Each structure stands twice: as structure tokens, then as C-alpha cells.
Amino acid sequence: MKFPDVKNRELHRLVSTAIIHKDGKFLIVRRSLVKKSWPGRWTVPGGGLEIDDYINTPPTVESNLATESNVWYSALETSLRREVREEVGIEMGKISYLLDLAFIRPDNTPVLTLSFYAPWKGGEVRLNPENIVYAWATVDELKNYDLIGGISEEIEMADKILKGEDPGAIKL
Prior knowledge:
Layout: E1 13-22, E2 25-31, E3 42-43, E4 46-48, H1 75-88, E5 91-92, E6 96-104, E7 110-122, E8 131-137, H2 151-162
Parallel strand pairs: 1-7
Antiparallel strand pairs: 1-2, 1-4, 2-3, 2-8, 5-7, 6-7
């Protein structure tokens, strides 16, 4: 297999996604038709970690030494909560880790995605321009949507965990 021309093979765009559940249903959104990856396909809310998600807040651990850096804990959770508020206007409860995946975008940017699941906590869905429509769907209803590959399986895994069942490994 020939790998794309990636300039710095150590750097990745870090993305997180949220499988948000409420009353046995899961929030899915249809991506804008102008998105770089998977335009017009259905997915779950999420987005990339930005330096502004932590750099303008006080460090969790502040260093006075020139040889040490300041440290910000929970930067990814802060980013995911911001992305969900921006994309769909709702708040989530406790966030739990589901799995990770890596891919290379069409523009040759390597991406590491961390997938999480969380209960809906409050708010009405209000979409920003990144998404064009939303639905609350059961696992059985997911087959009616043109979901990005793997999203249905991730939601099924989260559903099994919520039911106290063994989610098993993702099968694509």
C-alpha cells in the first residue's frame, strides 16, 4: 500500500466526536456539502482540538522553571464540549471514552479521532453551518441514513455499553 505524501509524519490533527444519547436515541447530524471530509454524509458532532481551547485559560499546573512547560488538563474534553455547543447547541453530561481511529484526509492531513459517548444534559438542538440537518435515531433507524463508515458501529457499541452488554470489537 502506498501512503500519501504527508509532510510531518509525527503530527496529526486531533479530533474528538460525541455519541450523544437521550431516551434510547442518538443524535446524528448531516455534514455540510462543503466539508473537506465526507461532505453531505451523516455523522455525530465533534471537531478538532484548537490551541485556544486551553492557552487562554490558567494552566492546571503552572511552572516557574524555564525548563518546564505549563500544563492544561482536560483540554480535549474542553474542546469536545465547545465543538458540541458550537455545532448543535446542547450540553452533555459525563463524557466516556469509546475508541480511537486514524485516517488521512483527502488533503493528506493525518487525523487521529477519539470517539466518546455522553448523555444529553440540556438544550435544544440548534445547528451551525457545519451541519445541515439533524435527527435523534435509534440503533435500528441508523440504516436509514447515509452514515460515514464506522459511525453506525460506534453507536451500536455505545448502545451495548449503556445496556450493560459487552460491546465487542468494532466490525466493519
